[in-house]
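INFO  loader      accepted 1 record
INFO  loader      residues=664
INFO  predictor   begin
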Amino acid sequence: MYLLGYSLNNFSLMALTIATGFVVDDAIVVLENVTRHVEAGMSRMEAALLGAKEVGFTVLSMSLSLIAVFIPILLMGGIVGRFFREFAVTLSLTILVSLVVSLTLTPMMCARLISPPSHKPPGRLARFGARAFGAVLSGYDVTLGWALRHRLFVLAILALTVALNVHLFTVVPKGFFPQQDIGQIMGGIQADQSISFQLMREKLGRFVDIVKADPAVDTVVGYTGGGQTNSGYLFIALKPLEQRDASADQVIARLRPKLAKVPGATLFLQAMQDVRAGGRQSNAQYQYTLQSDDLDLLREWTPKITEALRSVPDIADVNSDTQEKGLEIDLKIDRDTAARLGLSMAQISNTLYDAFGQRQVSTIYAPLNQYHVVMEVAPAYWQDPRTLDDIRISTSGGALAGSAATAAVAAVSTQLTGSADALSADAVRNANTNRIANTTKSGASTGAAVSTRFNLSVPLSAFATFGPGTTPLAVNHQGLFAASTLSFNLKPGVTLGEGLAAINRAMVQLGVPASIHGTSQGTAKLFQQSLGTQPLLILVALLSVYVVLGILYESFVHPLTILSTLPSAGVGIREACLQRFRPILMTTLAAIFGAVPLALASGTGAELRQPLGITIIGGLMVSQILTLYTTPVVYLLLDRLRRRPARTAREETGGAAPPLAPAR
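INFO  predictor   done
INFO  writer      dumping tokens
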């Protein structure tokens, strides 16, 4: 691991934990075979040489077949392949080291350390163990004899098991990674689209108070703003597992009805995960994106689809990033009237920006800091659009010059006196003064505060009308097309595969136009990609094992069995099975015990390790029971099929069949 640049992390430690059960398999097979010869009266040196020679091929085939299983994982792409590549490499190298040690160091130690049979009576524990193993072996002898006499029934069970596996693969719910509880929850706030910043801050405070009141919550941090005014985010840290009575998902479930009592805003909570794909920020854990080349059609159907998905029982917290009801004030300016009053569009725009645009007009430099000076109306005037009635536009604030400036001023003011030359001089002086004011960071200003002559201010209502309107808060795209992303969480006990299937059914029932295309994004997209390659990976793993064993056995038939020392006779089969029962049982138990720590794991991140341990233990137990009975039967059947062409050829030529090899 050090030479490969690997570290001790969840995946490498899982590989080492599992390896503790697999690496002893080879040593157990060698040790058991050498011990059997020593117990038969052979010297330790002879027993070590003969025992290692007899099972060397078996140990090699076992190790290489295990490594072949991990070949598809080593070649797997995407984020899943990146995660499990270190796991597969660590476990494969561990098995290779075990193979070398079992064929070299283990026989040497057997030749030196194994004690010859002792005539001393065994102890109570040894006698109990011998009786227990004898009872198990006797039971296996009886049941194996029955299986060999009823081969068709055993083969039917094997075929039924294979068919059941295929059926279960299609019907068992599928997920990406197990839902974790790492003690952190993230929440996204979606408020009314016309909400103000001040009211949004009040909603945030109410949400924070509700969340902090939960006994499982330790700290809460939140902020508003970001991409849109009506959005905000909360980051919740839960107490350690031993100090709370609920998981992260359970905390979210009991907070939902309390948070729903806050009017005008919704807080969507999701449990943080160690593994999450996609860069987009959303209010839920999974995303489903709608795309279309028709923006109007997309805006029409997005609310319909969102409402339809909210009634789907398998998913929760459905929300959309499409928000078309943002509040705006539509200002309609009578340009002719404004021109008669001597006002340009630049003057009007600058005045409105000075009032509401938060223009930075200067910087105050202090010894230890610098402060930006921002021009705006008082915050009290932000809350009501009727403030526009109080806005007045200065007629001397524009960059007018020459006769145009003279005519403009004369048209709106009958109180001004003096000659045209004086008025023109005033306009030129005002323009020069405004050029000084226009050197600010954010552009032009009306410059009314630095005017040096008497001027006339015109109410905005004299030449403009305004009224409420709506506007999209944002127009989102994915690639070259307009897009709307729907975010959702899963109900307790529902897998990601079931949730996506429910969304697809809802889309079909709703009759969404073909020009609107929906696809999973982020973690959901990665799940679908990995799900599509699972059957291929399983097939590649089986083919890899078959090819490796076929090369070792130099046969197209015998790779289908793992009992490499079985002869081609029914009696020999039975004796070989009984003889190899003890090492088979020992290796299986060693692998099972190696996975026990994963199955019993607890604490943060245990959700990733427990399914692996349970799968290994359950798979080894079921497969071992089937292997002990089906493998001998399958071997006899395939060996008979393999020998049939040779037997047919001998019958046609009148040759005699060679004698059967004696059972070992």
